Automatic annotation (TrEMBL):
<dbReference type="GO" id="GO:0032040">
    <property type="term" value="C:small-subunit processome"/>
</dbReference>
<dbReference type="GO" id="GO:0030692">
    <property type="term" value="C:Noc4p-Nop14p complex"/>
</dbReference>
<feature type="transmembrane region" description="Helical">
    <location>
        <begin position="85"/>
        <end position="107"/>
    </location>
</feature>
<comment type="similarity">
    <text>Belongs to the CBF/MAK21 family.</text>
</comment>
<keyword id="KW-0812">Transmembrane</keyword>
<feature type="domain" description="CCAAT-binding factor">
    <location>
        <begin position="43"/>
        <end position="192"/>
    </location>
</feature>
<dbReference type="GO" id="GO:0042254">
    <property type="term" value="P:ribosome biogenesis"/>
</dbReference>
<dbReference type="InterPro" id="IPR027193">
    <property type="entry name" value="Noc4"/>
</dbReference>
<dbReference type="Pfam" id="PF03914">
    <property type="entry name" value="CBF"/>
</dbReference>
<keyword id="KW-0472">Membrane</keyword>
<keyword id="KW-1133">Transmembrane helix</keyword>
<dbReference type="InterPro" id="IPR005612">
    <property type="entry name" value="CCAAT-binding_factor"/>
</dbReference>
<feature type="transmembrane region" description="Helical">
    <location>
        <begin position="31"/>
        <end position="54"/>
    </location>
</feature>
<protein>
    <submittedName>
        <fullName>NOC4L protein</fullName>
    </submittedName>
</protein>
Length: 254
């Protein structure tokens, strides 16, 4: 049993400062699989090392996607290692051989959690979901299903289900993104409206959006040039500004 702080310090540098210099990186399989099962930020950090072992050293992890699915909770859009996590999740979901029910479960869970996510995370996750639809056309039924559930109570998707195959995500629709089309931030609403149109074949580059912060988003809004707004040229008379207003006889604007 290692202290949490030590786990984090080791896992942050393991994938690029330790594994490449080991004669037998497979010796780290047990350590990384145990770290991946701990949960929280430690599991997120263990993903880097696991990816190298799976991709380059033929590590088999039968419940890998089930565990990755369980890591998706409301904090995922707020954690310090958000960019690293979504970069790796993008890689893990890039294979066209993944079953549609699995990808649909990831899409649906990320969309549900997006309802409470900050704007800077939403501007990253919406293109992320669009890329998943481009790679896995079978999941587009979530967008184009007519007469989908009107609200959460009618949605067949089971958010609490830990097994992606039993979540019934493919029976649902993506009403969460439609809700985001009325988001208070205009950039988010504009990004969510993309799903109303047919998606292009070219994937969106999300690398520049993974590190987007609230400060950068605010700074961008501050630097926008405001358009000239036409003002009322006719002098207001009365309470409601109408001619022959009966209130003007009894109330004055002075």
């Amino acid at each position: 049993q290692l202290p949490t702080g030590l786990y984090k310090k080791v896992l942050v540098i393991l994938h690029d400062s330790v594994l490449p210099y080991m004669n037998e990186p497979t010796l780290m399989m047990d350590f990384l699989t145990v770290a991946y099962g701990i949960g929280g930020a430690i599991s997120l950090l263990a993903l880097n090392g696991l990816f190298i072992l799976i991709h380059q050293h033929n590590l088999e992890y039968p419940d890998f996607y089930k565990k990755l699915y369980s890591l998706l909770d409301p904090s995922i859009y707020h954690v310090k290692y958000r960019a690293r996590f979504f970069h790796l999740t993008d890689l893990f979901l890039s294979s066209s051989h993944l079953p549609a029910y699995l990808v649909a479960a990831f899409i649906k869970r990320l969309a549900r959690l997006a309802l409470t996510a900050p704007p800077e995370a939403l501007l990253m996750i919406i293109p992320f979901l669009c890329n998943l639809f481009r790679r896995h056309p079978a999941c587009r039924v979530l967008v184009h299903r007519p007469g989908g559930p009107a609200d959460m109570s009618e949605d067949p998707y089971i958010m609490e289900e830990e097994e992606p195959s039993k979540s019934r995500a493919l029976e649902s629709s993506l009403w969460e993104i439609q809700s985001l089309q009325s988001h208070y931030h205009p950039d988010v609403a504009k990004a969510a409206a993309v799903l109303n149109q047919s998606l292009s074949e070219m994937e969106d580059d999300i690398s520049g959006l993974l590190e987007l912060s609230a400060y950068e988003l605010f700074d961008k809004e501050v630097k926008k040039k405001a358009a000239d707004v036409p003002l009322e040229f006719e002098q207001v008379r009365g309470l409601f500004g109408k001619k022959n207003d009966i209130f003007a006889e009894h109330f004055s604007l002075d």
